[in-house]
Amino acid sequence: MAETTDKALEQAVDAYLLWMKDEGYNSVSCEDHKETLHVFRDFIRDGEFEWDDVFTLDTVKAFQQHHGLTQARGVKGLSQYLFERNRIRRPVEKPRHWLPPIYKDYLTYHEQSRQAPYKRVKQIAAVLAALHNYLHSHDIDLSSLKIAHIDAFLAEFFESFAPATCRAYRSILRGFLRYLHQDRNVLKRDLAMLIKSRRSYSQAKPPRFLRPREIQTLFAGLKLSTPRDLRACAMVHLAYYLGLRPFEIVKIKLDDISFAKRELTLEERKGDNPMTLPVPEPAIKAIAVYILKGRPKSSRRILFLTRYAPHRPMRPNTAGCCIRACMRQVNLPSTAYWLRHTYAQNLLESGVTIFEIMEMMGHDKIESTKNYLHIHIKLMQKVLFDEAI
What pLDDT score does 389 carry? Predict the structure, then answer.
């Protein structure tokens, strides 16, 4: 088994070093990582580690201590590389939160018994750390927890989060409280069932979108002088002409685009609703200009990449910020989702049925589509005020 681990590690190191070169890392970084990883491989071979034990924080700490190193960037970089390719369960990272054993037991339970992915476990850990810090600061013991304490914590913790995030975090908290009651007998009462959220109404906050004059202002204000501008321009076109979410935009691969057919295949959509969409001429041109003049050279097939080496896929939040910046530079205080709402509104006003709109928006429930479309602005103004926009 140790021989198998050594062979797997050797292949992983070779692949990682080639990847660094292809991604444009400077020669100093490549040589530094190469030297560290060769020493690390000898350390793993001598210790006869199993593969699952190679990329753990304890192993890396032991390696650093044995060789008198303060950093092991090469090992951590390799672990991130392998994690992104599903070769290991988690990368080597410093624990972000200190948690008492019972909290850690719950995380282990989620990871091992429920097979929760690494990112989900990190999210749960963040919520539990916030709860622990709150209880500690108010001198509240976990065994004496009451629903009043939970309500006070939620009121403080949720202050800066959006409603959807609050719902997700409430679910995490319910799971932990249920675990404390049913599995650990720490709580005499199941407090999970007492955590209630305020009922939300789909009509309470109408979707926001841009008027035709505002759309003209937005596109007239798009800059095309730098690679960053070309990237932002392409993303704005995708958000407006196809109604794509930021997370869908950053998932697009070069192989998903057919310039001959002017089509875009979306493999990864919210609700797992892949489909192929026609791409209008302005959008296909914006994408082509970005690829030819703005996209950095890379072996990666993801369309939108970061500007600086190593060129990585963009994050959804970064894409959303780029689109929002384009809007704000022409004094439109809006977000990327306003363009998605505008797309839905345009479909409605062009006579497309709500079921077709549901498919094109990537919704799995008709109720989700209705939230976007409950106001038909042009029709309402025509009927009520005999005017048009």
Answer: 47
